[in-house]
């Protein structure tokens, strides 16, 4: 009960703070930095354009100033999220040799199991530099990557049904649920950018997304003490939006765009953390921020006079992407005579596959 009271107080303080000052003012200082908390039910249940527009402006303002928002009232039942976490944990408990039978092997497919140490997320796009970083300080996590299951070329890699009963159906259903929320959030983005509400609908309808299950095993603190070592290094995401479902352990940190210092994105029960990715920033001519973030180890528990152990952590990320053949070029409301387009057009596939190919060994 005490923990629940603290969490409620934390949420209430965020809501009160939001009424005292503007987000643009708050993010300029580390002491007042905050990720806005937005009740998205007011958009989902809106009866008028004005009601939708108020929420849309909050969402867009959050992506402009921070690049991140907390979304409550998102419409995904707690039971649905809990089931996805339960099935994810069951998969990662399988023996290593079983998981290796469904190993990730192609950046265009981007499907399958990725063992600890194989990935090194970073802002670099240079394959040799990333390889050196990976050798020095690989990300201490394992993941499972799942794409759309009906793709005519690239197939998901599923463990045998008996290994984790119900896993495939749970994840396919969760994939669809996340896509539907993504579509609605993108409608709020469109309104907030003075575009038609359905502007993005036919640019994201092929569901070229990536559902990533993440497991951060308990680890001795000394193994995370090397220079540059983290559970997941500082990086931005590649697509339009990322929907992040956190457990209660924490560890996600977001860079304050103004001070460049990392600030904790404390888990808030019932919320989803949503951030803008590289392609949405590029589409918006950098009106939106694709903000750097990382995962660090939370407080460790002492196990001897010289060693301590960090707790295990789970999260689920849904990386939302435009259709692979969508041409990402400056949106019409994000450029004018004083703000020319900053980027050459690029397709979703060209950008994302290139980044993935350099990230993995």
Automatic annotation (TrEMBL):
One of its GO terms (molecular function) is oxidoreductase activity. It comes from the Eukaryota. Residues 207-322 form the Fe2OG dioxygenase domain. Keywords: Iron, Metal-binding, Oxidoreductase. InterPro entries: DIOX_N (IPR026992), IPNS-like_FE2OG_OXY (IPR044861), IPNS-like_sf (IPR027443), Iron_ascorbate_oxido_reductase (IPR050231), Oxoglu/Fe-dep_dioxygenase_dom (IPR005123). Belongs to the iron/ascorbate-dependent oxidoreductase family. This is Fe2OG dioxygenase domain-containing protein.
């Amino acid at each position: 009960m005490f923990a629940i009271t603290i969490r409620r107080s934390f949420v209430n303080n965020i809501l009160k703070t939001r009424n005292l000052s503007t987000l643009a003012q708050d993010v300029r200082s580390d002491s007042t930095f905050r990720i806005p908390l937005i009740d998205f039910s007011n958009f989902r249940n809106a009866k008028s354009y004005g009601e939708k527009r108020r929420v849309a402006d909050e969402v867009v303002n959050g992506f402009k100033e921070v690049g991140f928002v907390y979304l409550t009232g998102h419409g995904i039942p707690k039971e649905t999220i809990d089931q996805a976490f339960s099935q994810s944990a069951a998969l990662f408990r399988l023996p290593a040799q079983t998981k290796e039978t469904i190993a990730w092997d192609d950046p265009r497919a981007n499907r399958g199991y990725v063992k600890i140490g194989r990935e090194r997320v970073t802002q670099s796009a240079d394959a040799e530099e990333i390889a050196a970083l990976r050798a020095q300080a690989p990300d201490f996590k394992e993941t499972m990557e799942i794409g759309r299951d009906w793709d005519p070329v690239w197939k998901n890699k599923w463990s045998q049904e008996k290994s984790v009963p119900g896993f495939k159906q749970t994840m396919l259903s969760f994939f669809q649920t996340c896509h539907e929320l993504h579509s609605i959030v993108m409608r709020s983005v469109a309104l907030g950018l003075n575009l038609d509400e359905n502007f993005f609908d036919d640019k994201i309808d092929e569901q070229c997304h990536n559902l990533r299950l993440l497991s951060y095993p308990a680890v001795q603190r000394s193994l995370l003490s090397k220079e540059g070592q983290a559970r997941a290094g500082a990086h931005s995401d590649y697509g339009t939006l990322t929907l992040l479902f956190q457990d209660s352990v924490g560890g996600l940190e977001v860079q304050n765009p103004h001070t460049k210092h990392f600030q904790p994105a404390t888990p808030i029960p019932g919320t989803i953390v949503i951030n803008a990715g590289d392609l949405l920033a590029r589409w918006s001519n950098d009106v939106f921020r694709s903000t750097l973030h990382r995962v660090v180890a939370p407080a460790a528990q002492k196990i001897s006079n010289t060693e301590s152990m960090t707790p295990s952590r789970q999260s689920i990320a849904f990386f939302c992407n435009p259709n692979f053949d969508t041409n990402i070029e400056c949106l019409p409301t994000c450029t004018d005579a004083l703000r020319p387009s900053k980027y050459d057009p690029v397709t979703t596939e060209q950008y994302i596959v290139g980044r993935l190919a350099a990230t993995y060994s």
